[in-house]
Amino acid sequence: MTRHVHIKRAYDQASDADGYRVLVDRLWPRGVRKEDLPYDEWCKNLAPSPGLRKWFGHKVENWAQFRDSYESELRKPEQTDRMRALITAAGGKQITLIYGAKDPDHNHALILAAELNRLY
Predict the structure, then answer these.
(1) 70 φ, ψ to 5°?
(2) 14-15-17 Cα angle (round to 5)
(3) Where are the chain's structural domains?
(4) DSSP strands (E only) in the chain
């Protein structure tokens, strides 16, 4: 299966290979000036709900339940429509989801990327 969606931290250098860059955090990444973060779109509504984000709190022990709950949020019709609109907006380019979390193995961008790749 070809992966059309990748993830990258907001603190990492942007590159032309990123394609269509989409910030997927509900809150702006700490310590990053808006003029210093290149992105094509900011999809706040595809981030986890505020309640789910706060409950998770980036605690690894909450990861499995967080993943299941966030997948459920993303599979609601309005979220599926938003993901399809994002794929369309990318115009066939690779999509790179930009996130601010420190943990590269336990963050919502991984889950969102998998859902977007599933829809491609």
Answers:
(1) -70, -40
(2) 135
(3) 5-119
(4) 5-9, 20-23, 41-42, 95-99
CA distance 109 to 105: 10
**Amino acid at residue number 13:** Q
pTM here is 0.95
Coil, helix or strand for 99?
strand
- Residues comprising the chain, all counted: 120
The angle subtended at Cα 1 by Cα 85 and Cα 110, nearest 5°, is 60
Q: What would the pLDDT profile of 11-45 be if each residue is shown by its tens digit? A: 999 999 999 999 999 999 999 999 999 999 999 99
Rounded CA separation 75/27 (Å): 22
Contact 33, 51 (CB under 8 A): no
